[in-house]
Design goal:
- It is a single chain.
- The protein has 159 residues and is α+β, with helices and mostly antiparallel strands.
- The chain has one domain: Thiol Ester Dehydrase, Chain A, CATH 3.10.129.
- The protein is 23% helix and 25% strand.
- Strands 1, 2, 3, 4, 5, 6, 7, 8 and 9 form a 9-stranded antiparallel sheet that branches.
- Strand 3 and strand 4 form a beta hairpin.
- It starts with 17 loop residues before the first strand and ends in a 10-residue tail after the last helix.
């Protein structure tokens, strides 16, 4: 069910570097899974940054305005798009990687207010750094697993 009253996100728009405002609770409802258990996952709506994507699935990390262990800094110079995304500095939790089914992008991105051709993004250098920092969290292993096993509703993978 597409609840987005703005321009919906198309499956073809899900690419590395994209940043969307998402609801972790709803992500789980549409088949998303994270490397953290429900009690350790980000709570409430947050921006998420796409680290990897293919035609069926994508990997995302939540971004917060609060620093903490395992979080990578994203300065406002490393972000493009809406002011609500660009203005505050962000800290991406590279230890909490979400796998999402791209076919349902218009459903799980219903909160995002960005528009086609004006999506929120991170710079290429920021994306490379986030990917590098996520490597320690077994990003490659998760990616291979997601691609081989398809949509694993409700599955949780240990980092």
């Amino acid at each position: 069910m597409n609840r987005n009253y703005h321009a919906s996100i198309g499956q073809d728009e899900v690419r590395p570097g994209l940043a969307l405002f998402l609801s972790p609770r709803y992500l789980r409802d549409v088949g998303g899974a994270s490397t953290q258990g429900p009690h350790r996952e980000v709570q409430g709506n947050h921006f998420f940054v796409c680290l990897e994507a293919d035609t069926s699935h994508s990997l995302w990390v939540p971004a917060s305005t609060k620093n903490g262990p395992g979080r990578a800094l994203l300065s406002s110079r490393e972000k493009t798009g809406a002011a609500s995304w660009r203005q505050p500095i962000s800290f991406c939790n590279v230890g909490e990687i979400w796998t999402l089914p791209n076919a349902l992008a218009s459903d799980w991105a219903f909160l995002d207010e960005s528009r086609p051709h004006q999506r929120n993004r991170v710079t290429r250098s920021a994306l490379a750094r986030l990917r590098c920092e996520a490597q320690g969290e077994n990003l490659c292993s998760l990616w291979v697993f997601a691609r081989r096993n398809g949509d694993r509703r409700g599955a949780r993978w240990a980092a």
